[in-house]
Every structure is written in C-alpha cells, then in structure tokens.
C-alpha cells in the first residue's frame, strides 16, 4: 500500500484536485499490484458509491441553504444576533458566534458558513475595533458548528456509510454544537473585557421584535426537520425536500426571492453537489482498494500491537482524524477511512451514534486546525490578514473545540441523551 500513498501524495503536491488524485492513485495501484483486471470493476464501484437514495438529501439541503442565503436570510440572521447580544462589550464577536450557530441550522457546511458570514462579519468586527486576525479566527473556528448542528451534510455521509440512524446523528449533534457556541461566547466575553473592546448602543425593543419576526421562520427550519423525522412524518430525504419547499415559501412571502435568485441558487447547488458526489464516487475506488488489500485489518492489528487499552486507541484515533482533517475534506476522509473506523468502533465498544459524532467533530475541527486548515485560509483571504496571524488567534478557540470533543468522547450522555429520549 506504500505505492498508493506515495502516488496520492505526489498527485496532491502537483496540484491535481483531490477527487482525481484519489481515483487515479487507486486505479494506478491496482495496475501496479498486478490486479489490472480489477480495473474493469471500477465504473461499477463508482456508480454504486453514489447510487443511494438517501444521498439525494445532499443537493436538497444544499439547495435549501442556497435559497435562504440568496433570499437575504444571512443578513437577517446577523441582524437578529445583533439585536440579541450586539450591545455587549465587543458585541460583534458574540454576534458572529450566534450567527454561526443559527446559520449552521440552515447550511450544514463549514466552508459555506465561513464564506457567507465572513464577508459580512469580519469587516463589522474590524470596524468595532477588534483585530482583523482575531475576527477572522473567530469566523473560521465558529464555522465548525456548520457540520455539527443539524442538518449536517457530513452527518448524512457518515450515516450512509456506517448504517447509523441519520435522524439520531442529527439529534446527537445538538449538544456538542451548543457546547462549542457556549465555550466560544465565554472566551469572546473574556477577550472583550481584557482588551477593552467598545460597547455599541442597545437596539430598541421595537427593533429587536422586528428582527425576531423577520428571522424566526428561518430559525425554526432545523426544528421542523428534527420533529418531522422523529415523529415519522417524513424520512431524512423527504425532510430535505420539505426544507427546499419551506425555503421557497418564506423567500417568496418576504419577497426576497426572485426567479433570477432561484436560478442562481440552483446553479450554485448543482456545482457543489456535483463536486461532493464526484469525490464520493472517486473515493469509492480507494475504499475498494483498501478492502481488497485488507487495510482495515492491518491497521487494527498495528494498533493492537501498540496498545489494547480502549481509551488509548480512542486517543490515537482522534489524533489521526484531526491530522487528516487538516489536509482533506471531511467527506473524503469518511469514505476513505470508514472500513477502518468501523473496525475501531467494534474494538472500543462505543455506541455507533456517539462514535459518529466524535468522528465528525474530529474531521471538522481539522478544517480549522493549523497548518493547512481550509477554514483558516478562507477567513484569512476575506480579512486580508496573513494566515500566520489568524492561526495565532485561532489556537485558544481550537482548544475550546478540543475540550468539547474530549467531553463527548468521554461522556456518552452528552450525545446520546437527546436521541435516546426522543427515539
């Protein structure tokens, strides 16, 4: 398997897109290892990797988020958060965190969240006197909530690959998402007092009520999805379709959507969905290669040769996933490592829903972890600050996310209480 990893690393270093790097490296390995006839099966494996009905949730949830974004929901969420906490010292930092939490319940994507909110909130925080690098770091790390708070594209992929209940995974992400938000709010409040960030005037009661009324329809979308799935009203795939219909209705009711904006949302959704599904199909080739070469069993045997302590195995697995998250997209990581992950889950005896939440949080934290976390580079580009400064400001924020990760890994009830109570 060394040849595969050398080829894959070489393709990535040469600038080849990750999806092509996965597919070409897997195909080349089969040829070089004398399994050339197996290459005839690859088209079938690629189609089988994406020929699953539940994957229809991905373009539908993406479309719902895109419709709300082009329909002005992002600006209304920021206005609502400003009405609630903008009057606090350094209030725009708290606004950014709350906006990320609310937006997470719509988009389900960390990169979309960082891009959409960063363009609005990083300049706003800078105008309030906060260092631009700190503003960028706050947006980058708070965007981690995107794939944790339901609906989550990453949770859907994990559920499809592992067989875990997507509805229960959605519910399991609520407490970790809130935990990250609370931790970041505490840090932002402390930082604002320490550095003496300015205080902005409180909005009047009438302004706060108006902001709440305009934003409330968007904020209840996650509740509609969770209640509908839990109540057996619709499946996760049908919930995604309901989300699209709901986004269209509130967009046209508020007269924020036009046919041109709907078309723009469809184009954006098609591009992102094609990218995700193409990566999924290409990664299926690598998953086939790993299964053929019994890589999960080899890695499990290697891990057991180091330690048979379940807690040490979990620690090593977390470190492994965090490192992968720095370099690869979460969906690619899940598809590549799922056979290995399921092996480790059986070894440590962790509940599948709790384990899935731990895995997803690991890979999305990696997106905001130096040296090459993609969220850091997105926020750095928006702010115009060198990524090294953004990383320096992001380190304590990443520490908060890691503390939440540790808690959900060690305390099962943090993730399992809501799913077990409602299901």
Automatic annotation (TrEMBL):
GO CC terms, sorted: plasma membrane
Specify whether Transport is a keyword of the entry. yes
Q: Classify the main location.
A: membrane
**Where does the sequence pass through the membrane?**
6-32, 53-74, 94-122, 134-160, 166-190, 211-229, 235-254, 266-291, 311-337, 358-382, 394-418
In this record, what's one Pfam family? Answer: DctM
Q: Which residues form the TRAP C4-dicarboxylate transport system permease DctM subunit domain?
A: 5-414
Note the InterPro entries from the entry. Answer: DctM, TRAP_DctM
Name its cellular compartments: Cell inner membrane
Name the membrane topology term.
Answer: Multi-pass membrane protein
Task: Describe the family membership recorded for this protein in Swiss-Prot or TrEMBL.
Answer: Belongs to the TRAP transporter large permease family.
Q: How does it assemble?
A: The complex comprises the extracytoplasmic solute receptor protein and the two transmembrane proteins.
Relate the protein's function as given in its record. Answer: Part of the tripartite ATP-independent periplasmic (TRAP) transport system.
Q: What is this protein called?
A: TRAP transporter large permease protein
- Which organism is this entry from? Thalassobius vesicularis
């Amino acid at each position: 398997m060394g040849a595969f990893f050398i080829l894959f690393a070489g393709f990535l270093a040469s600038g080849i897109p990750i999806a092509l790097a996965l597919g070409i490296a897997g195909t080349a390995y089969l040829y070089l290892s004398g399994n050339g006839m197996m290459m005839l099966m690859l088209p079938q494996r690629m189609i089988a990797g994406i020929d699953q009905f539940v994957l229809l949730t991905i373009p539908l949830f993406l479309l719902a988020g895109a419709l709300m974004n082009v329909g002005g929901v992002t600006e209304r969420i920021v206005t609502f958060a400003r009405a609630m906490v903008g009057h606090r010292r350094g209030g725009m930092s708290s606004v950014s965190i709350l906006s990320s939490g609310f937006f997470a319940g719509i988009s389900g994507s960390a990169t979309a969240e960082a891009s959409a909110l960063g363009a609005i909130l990083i300049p706003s925080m800078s105008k309030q006197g906060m260092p631009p690098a700190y503003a960028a770091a706050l947006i980058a790390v708070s965007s981690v909530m995107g794939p944790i708070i339901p609906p989550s594209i990453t949770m859907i992929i994990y559920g499809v690959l592992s067989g875990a209940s997507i509805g229960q995974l959605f519910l399991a992400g609520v407490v970790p998402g809130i935990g990250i938000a609370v931790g970041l709010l505490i840090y932002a409040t402390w930082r604002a007092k320490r550095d003496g960030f300015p205080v902005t005037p409180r909005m009047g009661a009438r302004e706060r009520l108006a902001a709440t009324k305009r934003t409330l329809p968007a904020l209840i979308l996650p509740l509609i999805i969770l209640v509908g799935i839990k109540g057996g009203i619709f499946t996760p795939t049908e919930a995604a379709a309901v989300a699209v219909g709901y986004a269209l209705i509130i967009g046209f009711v508020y007269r924020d959507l036009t046919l041109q904006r709907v078309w723009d949302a469809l184009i954006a959704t098609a591009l992102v969905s094609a990218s995700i599904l193409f990566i999924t199909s290409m990664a299926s080739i690598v998953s086939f290669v790993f299964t053929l070469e019994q890589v999960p069993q080899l890695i499990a045997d290697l891990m057991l040769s180091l330690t048979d302590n379940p807690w040490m195995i979990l620690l090593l697995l977390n470190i492994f996933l965090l490192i992968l998250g720095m370099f690869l997209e979460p969906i690619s990581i899940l598809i590549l490592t799922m056979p290995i992950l399921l092996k480790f889950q059986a070894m440590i005896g962790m509940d599948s829903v709790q384990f899935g939440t731990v895995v997803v949080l690991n890979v999305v934290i990696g997106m905001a972890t130096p040296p090459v976390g993609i969220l850091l580079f997105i926020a750095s580009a928006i702010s115009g600050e060198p990524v090294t400064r953004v990383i320096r400001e992001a380190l304590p924020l990443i520490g908060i996310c890691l503390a939440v990760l540790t808690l959900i890994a060690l305390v099962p009830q943090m993730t399992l209480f809501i799913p077990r109570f409602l299901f």
